[in-house]
Each structure stands twice: as structure tokens, then as C-alpha cells.
Amino acid sequence: MMQLFLPLNFLGFVYREIRGALANIERMFSLLDKHPMIVDSPQALDFQPSKGELSFEQVSFSYDERPILRDVSFKVAAGKKVAVVGDSGAGKSTLIKLLFRFYDVDQGAIKIDGQDIRHLTQDALRRAIAIVPQDTVLFNDSLVENIRYGRPSASDEEVRNAIKLAHLEQFIDSLAQGWDTKVGERGLKLSGGEKQRVAIARAILKGSPVLVFDEATSSLDSRSEQAILSALREVAKGHTSLVVAHRLSTIVDADQIVVLSQGEIVEQGNHQTLLLANGLYAKLWRIQNEQQHAHLSS
Ligand code: ATP
């Protein structure tokens, strides 16, 4: 019997190892978003930014010779919240891709705490920034492991705190298996708003000095949107935040709003000063308000 048990036991071990490795490869590809062109230089620094000040300095960028961003300059001071708004296709998400070095800028520089991000290891850069993307990737695993992914060494206590701050507590309590519920392709499907809150909980656990929030284009119901906004306010405390916003109502409290049009900054200021300036921002604000009123009265 023992002679049979040992090889079977070994096979079981091999099966679990392979399954684990496949799951890791799956995670790796979904997270790296398949951008292998950027390679660390041998002198790249493993720099740990402390303040998290961001600066875009005269950044220009083209996709296959099609100019997308032209001479874009703005700063996000440490601990402040800056929002980028503009028409669809203005280049907002491209700014985030450049910040993550999915591509390198053609001209100018992006800096964190004064360091050009091209001089940092990609590991250091990704540790410095937590992102809440438009569409969060969920692994075929339990909800708690999906959240803990933000920092695998986090204790249960820390995970519980992140769940609370991300306003996921009520949702998790409503599930029969609580945080052990399987999610992802082969498990429970989460709504867009719930997925974004999982990403917020991950970002809280990660604890990076810079937070990037790429707001989903599709609108959420207003309760879900409010839950996300108040969760974001929790994460933003003590962090530098860069928000790409589609709904202007979500960024009226931003310290600075950068308005992009066809890859160029056309206005910068806070909500009040931009309304007074009566330019593109004021126009976008009026259009969104009209749409909202039309929606409410239909
Ligand atoms: P939206 O509000 O619709 O999300 P956006 O302001 O975020 O738009 P970007 O996604 O930055 O706009 O896109 C800017 C322009 O770059 C668009 O015209 C888009 O078609 C183009 N673009 C985006 N990604 C690529 C790519 N990988 N290759 C080529 N062109 C691209």
C-alpha cells in the first residue's frame, strides 16, 4: 500500500505545483499587460520615493508617429489630488501608461520626487504607485486572496481594515462564504463598482506614496459611485493622487484640475476658477449637468 501511496502523493504534489505555477503565470501576464519593450538600464536605481511628488515636464508622445500628447507639463505636489479631464481620446489614459512606463516619453520627462522614472528600476516604480484601473483583473481565487494581492504579507487584521476603508464590508457580509467566496472567471462575478472597490482595498494594502485612479467610463449607479468616492477619499489621505476622471462630479474637490484637449493642456485650475474662466471645463460641466437632468427627468 505504501508503495502505491508515495508515488500518488508525489503526483499530487507535482499537480499542485504545476497548477500554482500556471496561476502565477496567468497573474503575471494579466498584470504586466504585455509590455515587454521597456528594459531596466544596468544603472537603474532601486529608489524608494518618500513624498510621492509627481511632475510631468514638457512631455510629448506619439503612437506610431501619430502625435497624442504635446508639451504637457503639470505637477502633483506631495499629498495633493490632481485630476485630468478632457474629451474622449484627449490622451488622459496615455498619461497613466507613460507614468507606468508601458512606453517611454518621446520628449520631456516624468519625475517622482525629482527622479526621472527612466532612471528607476521598473520594480521600484511599480512599488511607488498603486493603481485603481478602469477594469480590475480578478484571479480565480478567494475574495480575500484577491484583496491581499495588494501586499501578500498583510495580516488578516490589515486586510480587514482595508476592506472596511474600501466599503466592502457589507458586500462581503452578504455572501454565504464571506471573504472565502471564490471570484473571477470561474467564481462569483462582481459588478464594476465592487471590482473597483477590490482594487481600492488592494491599493490601501499596498500603501504606495502615489495613488492613480482611472475612473471607469461606464457610469455606475449613484450609491455605488458614492461608495467608491468615499473609499477613495480614505486612500487619498496622506497620499499623492492622480485621477483620470470622466464624470466631473467626482473631482470637484481636486486641488488642481488639468484640462486636456487633443493632447494639449488648455486650462488648469480648481473647479471654481475653471468655472469662472468659462472655457472648455465650464462647457464640459454644463454638458454633463444637462445630461444628468435629462436622465433624471426621463
Ligand atoms: P477616453 O476618455 O475615451 O478613455 P483618453 O483621453 O483616455 O480617452 P487615450 O486612451 O489616452 O484617450 O487615447 C488617446 C489617443 O491615442 C486615442 O486617439 C487612441 O485611439 C490612441 N491610442 C490609445 N492607445 C493606443 C495604442 N496602443 N496604439 C495606438 N493608438 C492608441
TrEMBL record:
Subcellular localization, as worded in the UniProt entry: Cell membrane
Transmembrane spans: 1-15
Residue ranges annotated for the ABC transporter domain, each copy included: 54-287
Top-rank lineage group of the source organism: Bacteria
Signal peptide as annotated in the record: none
Name the UniProt record assigns to this protein: ABC transporter
Residues of the full protein shown: 301 to 598 of 598
